[in-house]
Structures are given as structure tokens and as C-alpha cells.
Amino acid sequence: MEKLKALVATLTTVLIFISAVEILAPDKKMKKYISFVLGLILISAILNPIVEFITNGENSILQGIENYETVFSKNENKINTDGATSFESTRDSEDARKKAFISNFNKNCDSMLKNKFDNMTFKSEVDCDVDFNNVKINVKNLKIGIKDKNVRRIEKVEIGKEKKDTLRDEYKDVISYAASEFDISEDKIEVYMLEE
Fold first, then answer.
1. Which residues cross the membrane (predicted)?
2. SS3 assignment for the chain
3. Residues 141/126, Cβ–Cβ less than 8 Å
4. From CA 114, how far away is CA 112, in angstroms rounded?
5. Which pTM does this prediction carry?
6. Which of 15, 116, 124, 151 is 20 to 30 A distant from 100 in Cα terms?
7. What is the pLDDT of residues 118-153, one digit of tens each?
8. CA distance 67 to 51
9. What's the rounded Cα separation, in Å, for the pair 53 and 46?
10. Which domains does the chain have, with CATH numbers?
């Protein structure tokens, strides 16, 4: 990085110098020769870092590789000494991965449903088993909270009669869309109304 900064500074200085000399050059006969000499100076300023990199670049690259190897070996030794805690840390990392996966699944489900049904708001909660080794997911239950932005009709209340599951029938298209998108059974999907 320092070599790059030095190259930029050198080129800037040379270009300013060349511009100043060309402005102050006396006549046209002399200007040809001055431009030629200034061009040679510019070429040498450009080629100098390239030649330096070719001659010393191999050493700096090898030194960088050795530095990375020492850091890697230190970290490898640290991992080997922490063998007892590594099992617990892998379990913790798998739990964290599962939580992150479920959170992302819920967000993706909400956004997919929102894109399809833009007059509704959704909140999804999935209960699933995730196998990261075989890349498989087993959805046990998917709860979808729905808040409809449309004005709902007031339902007739009859005392003494049981209310059948009209919510499931009302949002059947949401359930079938979610079932087809996530390749799960419609029986595993529950819908409920979100509170305002």
C-alpha cells in the first residue's frame, strides 16, 4: 500500500514538473527536445516501481506468505488446545445457524406472501428441523399471522352455535400458495389474525 502511495505521489510530482517546464519552455525548436527529455523522465518514473517490484517483489510476497503461515499455525495450535470446548462451540454454532435459518425463513415467507397478496400484512413462525449436512428441512408447523387491510364485514353472532373454522376457509388461497411455494402439506399450516 505504501508503494502504491509513493507511486501516485511520484507521478503527480513528475506531471506537475512536466507541465511547469512545458509552460516555461522558450521556443518551438527547443520545445521538441524538452518534450522528449520530459517524456523520458516520465517513462523512468513509471518504470521505476515496476522494476523495483520485479526485483524485490518476490521477497515481499514470500515474506507475506510466511507471515500468514505463522498466524495460521498459531490459530491451529489454539484450536487444538481448546479441543474440549470445541464440541460445545460446534453445538452452539449449530444452534445459532438454526436460529438464523429460521429467522431468515420467516422473513422470506413474509416477503413472498406480501409480494403475492399486497393488501395484507403477514407474520410467519415456523417450527422445523434443519439438517445442514444433508441440506434438508422438515417443517413441522407453519403459523401465518394475517392482518387484512381491507374493511371486514361484521359477522352475525348467534348465541349457542359453534363457530366453524371460517378463518381457514377465508384465507385458503394464502394457505395453498404457501404450501405450494414451500412444498409442505396444507395441514401443517395454521392461520390466525394479527392484533391491530
1. 6-26, 33-51
2. CHHHHHHHHHHHHHHHHHHHHHHHCCCHHHHHHHHHHHHHHHHHHHHHHHHHHHHHHHHHHHHHHHHHHHHHHHHHHHHHHCHHHHHHHHHHHHHHHHHHHHHHHHHHHHHHHHHHCCCEEEEEEEEEEEECCCCEEEEEEEEEEEEECCCCCCCCCCCCCCCCCHHHHHCHHHHHHHHHHHCCCHHHEEEEECCC
3. yes
4. 5
5. 0.48
6. 116
7. 888 889 998 888 887 887 888 888 898 888 776 666
8. 24
9. 12
10. 2-81 (no CATH), 103-193 (3.30.300)
Q: Which position has the grid cell 500468514?
A: 68
pLDDT category at 16 given cuts 50, 70, 90 is very high
Instruction: Please give the backbone phi and psi of residue 133, each rounded to the nearest 5 degrees, phi first.
Output: -70, -45
Residue 187's identity, in one-letter code, is: D
Distance between CA atoms of residues 4 and 57, nearest Å: 13
Query: Locate cell 521505476: which residue?
Result: 48
Partners of residue 72 on adjacent β-strands: none
